[in-house]
Amino acid sequence: MTPRSFLLTPELAGYVRASSEAPDDVAADLLAETAAMADRGEAPATFQIAPEQGAFMQLLTRALGARRAIEIGTFTGFSALCIARGLPDDGRLLCLDLSEGWTAVARRYWERAGLADRIELQIGDALPALRALPAVATFDLAFVDADKTGYPAYVEELYDRMTPNGVVLLDNTLRQGRVLAPETDDDRAVVALNTALATDSRWETVLLPVADGLTVLRKR
Q1: What are phi and psi of 56, to 5 degrees?
Q2: Which of 106, 116, 126, 180 could anchor a disulfide with 96, C-beta 3.0 to 4.6 Å?
Q3: Closest to 167 (Cα-Cα) out of 76, 81, 80, 71
Q4: Residues 69 and 141: beta-carbon distance below 8 Å
Q5: Which residues pair with 72 in a beta bridge?
Q6: Is the pLDDT of residue 1 over 70?
């Protein structure tokens, strides 16, 4: 099943996709393979971002003129594919993920898209890997789609590593609407972070109703 925002009916979700640039064959095949994995119970369907979100992230990467990007939580690689396509030929994307299996799928499609030389994948816990990076302004764009209880630490560690006006994207910040009535530790962590970011003077912050909620942070 194609991922869609919980805010949209299937009909409206279809209209949104039809009114946006369509995924090419590589992206479409990656989305289809990931959906088939979810159908077989081999991967969570909720880990896949919607096609229109990927199109937006690719466009945003290009519009920002980003050259260095980082992704925390890669899954089967669709979001990384979109970001890498938005980078210039000499741009680089660093991906941090725990899973060898899911990212093996990602590697196949990055290679097929001719983007393997733009993407570095590190397998292991993201937070120690992030903390091991020099605490200097390096990244123009970051995308975080990983363990929700880890989001506050990821945002904190990213701040010094983002360039001035660098943009951080946080996925799933509406939690399927459960931000209004948190049920889990993940929900409560996101609610607390949303509240803190709204008044954090280091960031310009907007939470967009894109897919499952996409928070956009600009480093002041």
Answers
A1: -65, -45
A2: 126
A3: 71
A4: yes
A5: 96, 144
A6: no
Q: Are the C-beta atoms of residues 91 and 68 closer than 8 Å to each other?
A: yes
Residues 6+ apart with CB under 8 A from 18: none
Q: What is the DSSP letter of 182?
A: -
DSSP, res 19: T
Residues 6+ apart with CB under 8 A from 100: 123
Structure-token pair, residue 198: 């709204």
Rounded to whole angstroms, the Cα distance separating 50 from 120 reads: 23
What is the reported pTM? 0.97
Taking the alpha carbons of 190, 205, 168, 134 in that order, is the dihedral positive or negative? negative
Q: What is the pLDDT of residues 138-189, one digit of tens each?
A: 999 999 999 999 999 999 999 999 999 999 999 999 999 999 999 999 999 9
Tokens representing residue 203 in the block: 């960031």
Count helices and strands in the chain by DSSP H and E runs: 8, 7
Q: Are 58 and 83 in contact (CB under 8 A)?
A: yes
Would you call 39 helix, strand, or coil by DSSP?
Answer: helix
Q: What share of the chain is helix, strand, coil (3-state, %, to 5)?
A: 50, 20, 30
Quick: pLDDT tens for 33-74: 999 999 999 999 889 999 999 999 999 999 999 999 999 999
CA distance 103 to 93: 14
Pairing of strands 119-123, 92-97: parallel
Taking Cα atoms as reference points, which of 219, 214, 217, 218 lies closest to residue 55? 214
